[in-house]
Amino acid sequence: MKLSKRGEYALRSLINLGIATKVGRPLLRVTELAKAEDLPIKFLEQVMQQLREAGIVESERGKHGGYRLAKPSDQIHIGEIVRLIDGPLAPIGCVSQTAYEPCNCPDEAHCGLRMLMLDVRNAIAAILDRYTLADVVEVTTRKMATSGRPLPFSAPKAGTSVPNKPRAKNRASVTSPTEGVIHQLLGDYAI
pTM of the entire structure? Predict the structure, then answer.
């Protein structure tokens, strides 16, 4: 499974909508979402439309319109979003629970490759279905707070300057599926 750009943009935008809701700005314009993550506006509009059609976000028209989460962030599972945008989580069709396709293996019940890929699918699904948008927003905001970074979409405190957003890309370290980065950062909140 590889997350597409569409899937990445959807998740990044939903996380930002969750943060904005947390700081009291539940409605954001697509231009604000695009600017926050340096995303192409036209492509992001298509992604947001797909999320709206699926009932994940709601839109409000007009000068002060924008997008908001359609349901509480603790009811939006990350696996749900990935499946919506990118389809099944299975690396091969014969292990998919939502889009099963028979393979050309002569003995599917005893196929070692199928058994291995079933474990891969189950591990991916377990992680993505374990966490909600609320979990990811909590980890993100907690990490920003401990780093001294202001939360996006919140008004800066009087007399403080807003630092420039660093553009360096962080590479996540590979950890155990049951003790991943999110799980470690959530601590007592981990599911």
Answer: 0.80
